[in-house]
Specification:
By secondary structure, the protein is an alpha+beta fold. The protein has four domains: 1-141, Immunoglobulin-like (Sandwich), CATH 2.60.40; 143-279, Immunoglobulin-like (Sandwich), CATH 2.60.40.2550; 285-352, no CATH class; 374-453, no CATH class. 17% of the residues lie in helices and 39% in strands. The protein has seven helices and 23 strands. Helix 6 (355-370) packs antiparallel against helix 7. The termini are far apart.
Length: 456
């Protein structure tokens, strides 16, 4: 969102013309129900760039905010409003020019593809105007799937508040937004807010929330883990990231949900910028991270060994993991990627061992022996991939000699989604059991799977 604009701001923040209006905005989308979403727009107006004007013997600075939201499919204008944001100033207060006017606007939108035009005009100078044009996509919320809201960035610690009159109050908290999405050495701590919905669809399943900070290239710099309760359908996640040790640059904050240590493809991300000139690029934690990689088990891997390790890790990798790894062209990059990949899945990072990786590699060894065929490695078979992703089933029923049926197996997992099954059949007759049917959400579903293994 506004990547080019923010990049310019990031590179030249200290060289802006004093006459130009300083106006930035950000937004976040929150779920209301299956058809409606709540759009919050956060804006910031630099007081130093606003011209003073007098009204009833008082001095003010301020701007008009114009918001237009249009549904692209039919050019239907949903919102077309002008707002007035101003504040009285004390001319003897020398600090007023260093402050920003911060505000929030709220809208309820249904599913659709929208165009958002938002502009700010100096009340005292109608020629001083800044405008942005943004695309907005609002999706229907699937009540049978866990969902994240967008991540809202904040400038202050988020805690319980009784200030219900504040425009920034929600869910018993007061959240002061950071529309500029920039943090500095004077404001080096990032606070964030997000909401997680539909957790009861996974009631009884062990869920883990992973908070990751990554560089702009996707390299994981740090990761935190915490269990997610599922007794409430929706929860709030308010967290903090200390940025003091990182150099200036663009970063990505990602929240992901793992089910029993396996990725389930649920995540949300937020890009932001850091201005921290006192930390030199490549001298602080980035170099120490490189030393950590070199001194780890990954630091001695050959390129072939790196490729093999990523290949066997594919069943638990995210989509962006594949694109990131495939773009790596040097050995150091692959070693760092694998270091970060397994660090993010270590549920007990305070211990020397990565217990999840050790357990997973035991699964790899098992499937390579148990499920290999004449043409496929065990890890590349449907049974092997299922075993690697979900672990050993609670029940594994084999049917090698059913009348008029080709051999098939039914695996049962009692702890996943209240109980699911996977059905594999030897369709070809060469021992390669294909996944025919599963009641696990997101897997192949075919209630007439038997017809594929009937012997004619």
């Amino acid at each position: 969102m506004k990547k080019t604009i923010f990049l310019v701001l990031f590179l030249s923040i200290t060289t802006f013309s004093q006459e130009k209006l300083s106006f930035e905005f950000d937004y976040a989308r929150f779920n209301i129900d299956s058809t409606n979403s709540y759009l919050e727009i956060y804006y910031s107006l630099g007081q130093r760039n606003l011209e003073q004007y007098e009204d009833e013997n008082k001095q003010y600075i301020g701007a008009y905010l114009d918001v237009k939201i249009t549904e692209k499919s039919n050019n239907n204008v949903i919102v077309n409003k002008r707002y007035k944001s101003r504040t009285e100033i004390n001319l003897s207060d020398s600090l007023f020019s260093s402050k920003n006017l911060i505000g929030k606007l709220d809208y309820v939108l249904t599913q659709g593809d929208y165009s958002l035009i938002i502009s700010a005009t100096d009340i005292a100078d109608s020629t001083n105007i800044v405008s942005y044009n943004e695309n907005l996509i609002i999706k229907n919320a699937n009540p049978n799937k866990i969902l994240f809201s967008d991540i809202q960035l904040a400038t202050r610690i988020i805690s319980n508040s009784q200030n219900k009159e504040s425009m920034f109050y929600k869910n018993t908290m007061e959240i002061i937004p950071n529309p500029q999405i920039i943090y500095t050495e004077k404001m080096p701590v990032l606070f964030f807010y997000s909401e997680i919905y539909n957790l009861k669809v996974k009631d009884g399943v062990n869920l883990t929330l992973i908070q990751q900070l990554s560089s702009s290239t996707g390299r994981v710099l740090e990761a935190k883990h915490k269990p997610i309760p599922t007794q409430n359908n929706s929860i709030v996640e308010a967290g903090v990231v200390n940025l003091k040790k990182y150099p200036s640059g663009a970063y990505i904050l990602t929240l992901s949900i793992f089910e029993d240590s396996a990725a389930v493809g649920i995540s949300t991300s937020k890009r932001f910028f850091l201005l921290n000139p006192s930390v030199k690029q490549g001298v602080t934690n980035l170099s120490s991270d490189k030393l950590a990689v070199q001194s780890s088990e990954y630091g001695i891997l050959s390129e072939e060994e790196c490729d093999e390790l990523f290949l066997v890790s594919a069943p638990i990798a995210l989509k962006n993991d594949f694109s990131t790894y495939n773009q790596l062209t040097n050995l150091d990059g692959k070693r760092i990627f694998l270091f970060d990949f397994w660090l993010a899945r270590d549920q007990e990072p305070e211990t020397k061992e990565n217990e999840f990786k050790e357990e997973y590699m035991e699964r790899v060894e098992f499937v390579e022996r148990r499920f290999k065929t004449f043409v496929n490695r065990g890890i590349n078979t449907d049974r092997g991939k299922t075993y690697l992703q979900y672990g050993e089933p609670d029940e594994m029923d084999n049917y090698p000699n059913e009348h008029n049926m080709k051999p098939y197996e039914i695996w049962t997992y009692n702890s996943i989604e209240g109980g699911v099954i996977f059905v594999f059949g030897d369709v070809s007759g060469y021992g390669n059991y294909e996944l025919l049917h599963s009641t696990k959400r997101g897997e192949i579903f075919d209630e007439y799977w038997q017809r594929r293994i009937v012997v004619n």
